[in-house]
Design goal:
Shape: globular
CATH architecture of the largest domain: 3-Layer(aba) Sandwich
Number of strands: 18
Bound molecules: calcium ion
Number of domains: 3
Distance between the termini: 27 Å
Radius of gyration: 25 Å
CATH superfamily of the largest domain: Alkaline Phosphatase, subunit A
Structural class: alpha/beta
Length: 646
């Protein structure tokens, strides 16, 4: 509000609607459909094809018919991972993880240049569908998706209160209905595919299926839980050894299984929550033999629910696969599967609270697997979600595409990261990203296309991978990784080629390497911060105006005297900054002050484009939100008195 008070006037210029990428109609045979499946808080080795004891036959089949990447990474947390996956940038670059000096993190808003993948795909002829968790700023349909089922209630698997379809809120789900989040998400994804098959057969599609499973609370249908109920009575110590044996024999990871870090508990302390969970709960991965029989039963029941959640997700993925087969698009669809962060050691109580007498896994319980089972889920790695040791950031990554991937069942040891997904998909979709006339504030995308790795393990000549989350830091250069917990701790150094599970700290042996890598981490951090805090300057946009060729919605702001924006002002500061191209937006709400601005977005845009002049309207301290009804008292509006700027 302060910024608006200072500025007073806003001049809006709307640019042409030509495509940002070369528009391609139809679906050439070599452009695959893409189904991106994201699990939530799934551990590195939870899937059977990564060594887990949880039966996941459908994902295992995708792995045996495609590729398993063994060194793929996320960002250690839900929302930064989604920003990285869909924007192609590190979350800090697009203000979706904490950056000092700018609103950022889970409530941060992306800069206007940080579009999401569906917006690019739309110009390439794709239709995009979103099903499940969102956790990105903005709304799905405003970011290029044609359909969306958005589940915002992450605390209730059976009766969510907050969810929406196509950006319109749905009624809360009543208790004791047959709703289960994982199934509902798959149902929606399948509905979208069916609609696509009947109405848009000549178009390629992108389906983003974001399951909320197996994020806490562990809740699953009783019939699913029952299949796993006694599987975990042998405890996390023994089951971890068993996973490690399978991981080694499959070649997914080699090296050493580190001992469980018994002193490492949840990353956040909720002592009251722990008390409410009862005497059978523990917040440290204690030796299994030290637990009472009652505690073992309680703990085993929790992990049985976790296994049921993964099992159910796998079965729902099987239904999506069958839909693709029914449509005749299994062969020409690239299916990607991964997790947004490592398994979580968090323990807290939210939602409807925890009722100690209720059956474990029902909607009346709010339980987490805790650090013991999280250590199992992340086998063979150390630490958990939020940390950037391998346990927090390593994810299974399956790529399946019968027409494009012929090395069935192979492993890929090429390191990869969520930031690689956008360049990978855009390369396959026929896009050229970024184009030479991308907005000047947009930095060079940090990710690399993985397409070459579909044929063979390839050195992508990547300089470094970078992590930062809640003070935890890491950098990987080749096989070397520095990592630290919190802002004040010293760097650890590991050679991941020999010691993937980070057991031997080589920092004191190679201090010069640590210094050099730390300097690069600092440099990249500073660069990301600069990117996140750089405000688009009005003057930097002016050269684009005469040609009217830029596709992005673009808004030029001036101060009352027509000068450029002062430092520290961002385009996103203004509620009038709606995106051009959204014909459903009513510009009479954005500029309600004169006849020239009446009409829908489309007609307003056409009028603007017709005489190539901009408008300005006064924004006072109580300026309206453009999505709210227009104010009763118009302020002022007129054609620009600086026509040279258009
Ligand atoms: Ca997550």
């Amino acid at each position: 509000m302060n910024l608006r008070r200072k500025l007073g006037w806003i001049l809006i210029a709307l640019l042409g609607t030509g495509s940002f990428l070369t528009a391609l109609a139809g679906k050439p045979a070599d452009r695959p459909n893409v189904v991106l499946i994201l699990a939530d808080d799934l551990g590195f080795s939870d899937l059977g094809c990564y060594g887990g004891e949880i039966p996941t036959p459908h994902l295992d089949a995708l792995a045996s018919g495609g590729l398993r990447y063994t060194q793929f990474y996320n960002t250690a947390r839900c929302w930064p991972s989604r920003a990285a996956a869909l924007s192609g940038f590190y979350a800090q670059q697009v203000r979706r993880d904490a950056v000092p000096g700018v609103p950022s993190g889970t409530n941060g808003k992306r800069p206007s240049w940080a579009k999401l993948l569906p917006e690019y795909l739309k110009t390439l002829g794709y239709r995009s569908y979103h099903s499940g968790k969102w956790h990105v700023d903005g709304k799905p349909l405003a970011n290029g998706f044609e359909r969306s089922y958005r589940l915002d209630d992450h605390d209730r698997y059976f009766a969510p209160r907050f969810h929406s379809e196509d950006d319109v809120a749905l009624e809360p789900v009543p208790t004791n209905s047959n709703y289960y989040a994982t199934t509902a998400i798959a149902d929606h994804a399948i509905r979208c595919l069916k609609e696509h098959a009947t109405q848009f057969q000549d178009r390629p599609f992108f389906s983003f299926v974001a399951f909320t499973a197996p994020h806490f609370p562990v809740q699953a249908p009783a019939s699913d839980v029952e299949r796993h109920r006694n599987r975990y009575l042998s405890g996390w110590d023994q089951l971890r050894e068993e996973r490690w044996n399978r991981i080694q024999s499959s070649g997914v990871v080699s090296g050493t299984l580190p001992p469980i870090e018994r002193e490492i508990g949840p990353p956040y302390d909720f002592p009251d929550a722990l008390k409410s969970l009862g005497a059978n709960e523990v917040n440290r991965p204690l030796p299994w033999g030290e637990l009472s029989s009652s505690q073992r039963r309680f703990q085993a029941d929790k992990m049985a629910v976790h296994a049921a959640m993964v099992d159910r997700m796998d079965q729902e993925i099987g239904r999506i696969v069958r839909q693709l087969q029914t449509m005749g698009h299994f062969e020409d669809t690239l299916i990607l599967f991964l997790s947004d962060n490592g398994a979580s050691a968090e323990m807290m109580v939210r939602g409807d609270g925890h009722h100690p007498d209720a059956l474990c896994g029902t909607g009346a319980t709010f339980l987490s697997i805790g650090p013991g089972w999280s250590s199992l889920a992340n086998t063979p790695f150390r630490r958990h979600k939020t940390w950037v040791h391998e346990g927090g950031i390593a994810t299974p990554f399956i790529a399946h595409w019968p027409q494009g991937i012929t090395h069935h069942g192979a492993l890929r040891k090429t390191p990869g990261h969520l930031i690689d997904l956008v360049p990978t998909v855009l390369e396959l979709a026929g896009g050229n990203w970024p184009e030479k006339d991308h907005p000047p504030e947009m930095p060079k995308p940090p990710g690399l296309s993985l397409v070459r790795t579909f044929a063979q393990d390839t050195d992508l000549k990547r300089e470094a991978l970078w992590w930062q989350h809640e003070g935890n830091r890491a950098l990987r250069e080749g096989d070397w990784k520095i990592v630290a917990t919190g802002v004040n701790s010293a760097w650890e150094l590991y050679n991941l080629a020999q010691d993937r599970s980070e057991t031997i700290n080589l920092a004191s042996k190679h201090p010069e390497r640590v210094l050099a890598m730390a300097a690069r981490w600092e440099s990249m951090t500073a660069s990301h911060r600069t990117t996140a805090t750089t405000r688009p300057s009005a003057s930097s946009l002016f050269p684009l105006f005469p040609e009217w060729k830029h596709s992005a919605s673009l808004f030029v702001l001036t101060t009352p005297d027509g000068a450029d924006l002062p430092d520290g002002v961002t385009l996103e500061s203004f509620p009038l900054l709606v995106r051009l191209g959204r014909d459903d937006f009513d510009f009479t709400q954005a500029c309600p002050h004169g006849e020239d601005t009446r009409g829908t977005g489309s007609s307003f845009r056409n009028r603007i484009l017709g005489h190539r002049q901009g408008f300005r309207c006064h924004l006072g301290a109580d300026s309206p939100d453009p999505r709210q009804p227009a104010p009763r008292t118009p302020r002022s509006l007129g054609k620009s008195d600086r026509p040279n700027r258009f």
